[in-house]
Amino acid sequence: MEYCKLPVIFADVLLIYLISSLLYLIFTMNIGTPFKDSLTPEQIKIKIRSSKLRSKIFYGSVIGVAVIVFTVKPFKKCLKV
Predict the structure, then answer these.
(1) Whether the Cβ atoms of residue 4 and residue 78 lie closer than 8 Å to each other
(2) Phi and psi at residue 74, in whole multiples of 5°?
(3) What integer is the mean pLDDT of 30-51?
């Protein structure tokens, strides 16, 4: 495998995921939320608390992994051979 092949594959996968996510948001914009609309006020409070906790965990993970990646620098610049 070429030295730069793996990072290019990651970039391709990232681009596919990004464009697919944007298309998903566009195509589902007007579908509605039948499950969310059926929740009771108490269930909505539980959902909000859970969402806040999950957000803290996710953003903490993003920051932690970013620190590790920028410290370790797993992707080196391509060397011209």
Answers:
(1) yes
(2) -70, -20
(3) 92
Q: Both tokens of residue 27?
A: 């195509």
Helix (H) or strand (E) holding 58: helix 41-72
The mean pLDDT of the chain is 86
Can you read off the two tokens belonging to residue 72? 């370790």
Place of tokens 């996710």: 58
Kindly tell me the burial class for residue 52, based on how many C-beta atoms sit within 10 Å of its own C-beta (0-12, 13-18, 19 or more).
exposed
**Cβ 4 vs Cβ 80: under 8 Å:** no
Closest CA to 74 of 7, 29, 12: 7
